[in-house]
Structures are given as C-alpha cells and as structure tokens.
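User: Sequence recovery, please. Input:
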C-alpha cells in the first residue's frame, strides 16, 4: 500500500522560511516523478514544483527564486525549501507521486497521483 506523508508546515512571519518534507513508502521512489501542490483557502489546487526521476526541476513562476524542490532517493524523501515567504503563500501543501512533470505539475499516466493528506502553511503579515 502506497503512503505519502508530508511534514514541516506551520505558522511563520512574512519573509521567513520553512522546509517541507515528504516521505513515500510502498513504491519504488526512484521510479516516480514527485511534485508539490498547494491549495489556498477558497481557491483551486495549483502545482508549485515538480522534479523528475532524473532530478530535473520545474517551478511555478509565482514561487521561482524563493522555493526549491529536491529529492533524496536513498531516503525516499522529497523536500521543498521555502524562503522569502509571503502571506499569499498561505495554503495547504500536498506532496504527490506520479510519472512525469508538465511544468510544475506531476501526473500519472494511468489513474490518479498518489497523494498525501497535506500540511498547512500559514504566513502572517
């Protein structure tokens, strides 16, 4: 059974930093592209950043230069380093496992991505 679990969210002041982590089990981590999504209150979910199996990264323009995605295959871990946080970054952040990246979005070829339950990030002004 595949499990995806996020951690590292919290409350931070504008300009601060947070590092989100995601661990995935029940799958061969190296075989998957991984991505971070977020869903602000009252808005649709959007792709934040995606990393391919080979380590190529794609990041949304809204966070480019502030957020960095990385993966450590030996630990089945995905990370998102978030610097220079802004109130508009407030959202539930989700980790997902898929097959390929299309820009900052990760997709599976057949069926849905494997999703975590999310971790809340709140940025105060």
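Assistant: Recovered sequence (125 residues):
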């Amino acid at each position: 059974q595949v499990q995806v679990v996020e951690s590292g969210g919290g409350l931070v002041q504008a300009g601060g930093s947070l590092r989100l982590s995601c661990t995935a089990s029940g799958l061969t981590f190296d075989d998957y592209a991984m991505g971070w999504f977020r869903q602000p209150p009252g808005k649709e979910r959007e792709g934040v950043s995606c990393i391919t199996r080979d380590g190529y990264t794609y990041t949304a323009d809204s966070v480019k230069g502030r957020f960095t995605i990385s993966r450590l295959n030996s630990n089945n871990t995905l990370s998102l380093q978030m610097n220079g946080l802004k109130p508009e970054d407030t959202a539930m952040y989700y980790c997902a496992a898929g097959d390929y990246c299309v820009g900052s979005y990760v997709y599976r070829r057949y069926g849905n991505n494997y999703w975590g339950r999310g971790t809340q990030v709140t940025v105060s002004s």
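The radius of gyration is 13 Å.
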